[in-house]
Specification:
The chain has a 3-stranded parallel β-sheet, sandwiched between helices. The radius of gyration is 12 Å and the shape is globular. The longest helix has 11 residues, at about 65-75. It contains 3 helices and 3 strands. The protein has helices spanning about 15-25, 45-50, 65-75; strands at about 5-10, 30-40, 55-60. It is α/β, with parallel strands linked by helices.
């Protein structure tokens, strides 16, 4: 069963790298990581750009609409259970 991990983020440049690194160490291999940047004004989107190049993380950008809208976009783009 594929598991989707959805991370809404806004101005989290200090912690997003550590979060993604921790997820990459999980023993479950059938998972997808989706990060939705909710219009960050810091360097969060730049850090996510690097993470998306690995192919293990799907990154989506949207205008700042709040965490609910970011989660909804993540769910819409997910393929896991």
């Amino acid at each position: 069963m594929k598991i989707s991990i959805i991370i809404p983020t806004y101005n989290e440049e200090d912690v997003i790298g550590e979060c993604l690194e921790s997820l990459s160490k999980q023993t479950c291999k059938d998972l997808e990581i989706i990060v939705v940047d909710d219009g960050s004004t810091d360097t969060t989107s730049l850090k996510l750009r690097g993470a998306s190049k690995t192919g293990h993380v799907k990154v989506f950008l949207q205008e700042h609409k709040g965490p609910g809208a970011a989660r909804n976009l993540g769910v819409k783009e997910s393929s896991g259970k």
